[in-house]
Amino acid sequence: MISRTALLVANFTLLLVLFAGVTNGAEPFQMEEYLKFPPVFLYDDFEDCRRYYTDYVYCVVKAPLEPDESSELWRNISFFSSDYHHYDHGVLERGVCLQKCRDVLIQNGTEGIDSYTQTDLIHQCVSNELTSRYQLRLQPDLHIQYCYSKSTESLSYGMDNDWLDAVFLLLAGTIIFLVIASTVYDLHEQAKQRFPESYFGRNPKLSYQRLLTAFSFPRNLRRLKDPQTTQTRIDLACFESFRCVQTLRVIFLHVSIAHMKLPQRNPEFFEQLQQGAALKTFIAEFQNYVQTFFAIGGMLMAINFLDHIRKHPNFRLAFFGERLLNRLCRLVPTYAFMILLESSVMRHMIDGPFGKQFIGESSDSCHRWWWANLLFINNYIGWGEPCFIPSWYLATDLQLYIFGLAIMMVFWKWPSTRKYIFGAIFVYSIVVPAIVYLTSDITPVMTIDMKDTEKYIRGQMFQSVLYFPFHQNTGVYFCGMLGGLVYHHYRDQRKELFKHGVFRQIAQLSGMLYVFSMVTVAWVVTNLSWLPAACLAVYASTFKISWGLFNTVLLVALALLHRHNWIKMALAHPIFGVLGKLGYSVYLIHFTVIVQVYGREKAPIFSNELIVAGYTAEVMFFSYILGLVLCLMVELPTGAVLKELLEPSSSKPSSNTINSKVHTVTEPNGGPPVTTPGDVTSNDVNRGSVPNETH
Predict the structure, then answer these.
(1) What is the pTM assigned to this prediction?
(2) 438 in helix, strand or coil?
(3) Where is the Acyltransferase domain (predicted)?
């Protein structure tokens, strides 16, 4: 039956692809008419304004055009802007140096300038440009977004005695002191023991010694390259390559979103690019990045839970609280450190004309919504003003972890409920996205509205309704949990699974379903206007679950392959283990790097594929460098300290290696970022499956 279904999906996909080739053509981009439009973005030179005018004032404004149906140019602008693939060319963005504007008006003989307000000056200058060159008029109301001047400059750079700055500097100084002191103590102990082999790979025997060496730099550096020591860790080490690749993709995604937020000298580059089927498919597939982390997270959680109850079969409710506390202790310290950094000293690095647009917005959002982030509810509250673009993933992942852990506790107490609960969750995961689509004004898959780019595309209902909420991601997470159950059942007889006909048929069906989704999505997005709502609702559910199901099948198959299989060995290369351990810190810090890189720009930029790739490479480089520092100085040390303080001595492994003490689960992200398969032990599940941002 499943084989027939897979064949039907394959045939239908082929027919739809052939049909799409006929109907998927986009209207040609009329560049000749396009070039007659006023530039959407036009900025005076910011550095010249600051250099030549002592008391400079530089403002960024939104200037809406006055509708004029008698003007052919206005009609073309209005029609062109109605397409969500295009910027709103009816609202112009201008960067205006007020002193230069005043000088131009004086030269043109404009009278009464001394009585003009800032808004009047800007309106007059922009209006003169439009009237003389395009015979268009501005609406009377302008929206001044940001202004820069000597006073704001001194505020940005000055260290005003703000308590947040003081707290961060005190905390950073304390961490540096602890790292130095702990390193000196550890090196002294090493010399005292006459430099034994693998000294940093073994934990001290006494608790106080483990605390004193928790911040030791060489010891934490050694933790990054811990070898895999258990069969489960060896089996699941190949997951790190999945996480690493998806982390890089999340960073690229977030760089692309930030790049579109920056004013463009050639906005037609993105507008034309959006018309192509390749980019529509690429955008729709964004959601699959975090689906990978959710699937890995569910699988790890189930495996570690089953390992625990195999060793401790007696039901114990307190286990739920212990696992949740352990997880929070691993997530919160580094997360809180980054929120404090972003909301304090980062705001002193604002420099115009885009500093407030990037660095300022991020800092203000962290300052306003820090509590929602630390309560891990920012996927429901404050999601439109992100402290970090990928922080919603951390909230969703933790909520899924809590829900999944609660379900596993129910299985532990009442094993007979397993098939009923999994069945109910499967039906829920299929039906709910379809119902939500039918009752909401959203698209069935992710798209990008170019008019929403200044908000990091957070203005689209799809994200808040189908993408961010934990209750819309339970299907993928429970696919991962089911994969964990399958792995746990077959790991001692792993060849049997590959002989199982049902597994092969599910693999074929899930693969065809994923291929069907990817091949058809561009055609579906292009033809949303006439496709029946019921069909689109079914498609929304199918697309959402397709990669999660197929990815889980791949993960289970890889986990159960022989350890010497060449594919598994390549995917489990030690470099992926190191990059995986850095994943959580990189995931947290890469958005800070992005806003610093783009916030330091001084003018609208010219964009093409190579330029976007260059920005991506720069962000990735600094994200991993700074992520390494964050991991070695904050994440790993605080994890070691909290583990030593909170975990009962009776529950600590008897092994005297670092592996037995600290297991880092790298994230998403992009998330994503909290679930790191490289270190799969009972402790790893507590960090989750962090995306990298997710993206």
Answers:
(1) 0.88
(2) helix
(3) 239-625
